[in-house]
Amino acid sequence: EAGVTQFPSHSVIEKGQTVTLRCDPISGHDNLYWYRRVMGKEIKFLLHFVKESKQDESGMPNNRFLAERTGGTYSTLKVQPAELEDSGVYFCASSRGGLAWDTQYFGPGTRLTVL
Amino acid sequence: QKEVEQDPGPLSVPEGAIVSLNCTYSNSAFQYFMWYRQYSRKGPELLMYTYSSGNKEDGRFTAQVDKSSKYISLFIRDSQPSDSATYLCAMSAARNFNKFYFGSGTKLNVKP
Known about the structure:
heterodimer; A: mainly beta; 7-stranded mixed β-sheet; 49% strand; globular; B: mainly beta; 6-stranded mixed β-sheet; 5-stranded antiparallel β-sheet; 11 strands
């Protein structure tokens, strides 16, 4: 079974540009999560999809961030326009169900650098 | 104040040592407690999962939760060089158990 995949693995952009990150969850996993880790800080929750619906987006920092999951399969996270403080590692995770004991499987992350 | 506090280390131990990793938290609503291991340039991987207070053992790993003290621990017995990684605690509340709050991670180095 393939794990969670994320693309690209690394992105370097200039302030003000747009970047789109992609996450492919494990096949059959209805639940998809986005997290990010900025330099020196802890991993922080951004949002949670159940299929194509946003279940919880309380961690999204501002309206420059837009997450979508059309068709309930892969998800994209767009940052527009990017700011310096958006630099960090963006992780995607997926779980089969939404129960408390359903393991969240993490992807390797996308390292975003905003110059 | 951070929701979850974790000593970043690094922690360096000789092979075979017992390792103790800890987190403290401030939110008494947390009920679910996880330990993740993360190797360099990889995503976090679930090691242990516990609910509420108590102990849980899995091979060389033991997780402990003390809700009265808001303190959780992960013990690694007979540590191996392959255990060298960053260990992250995570926790969530019953009302929104899918929203994880992570510690900043402790970097562990087990020397051969």
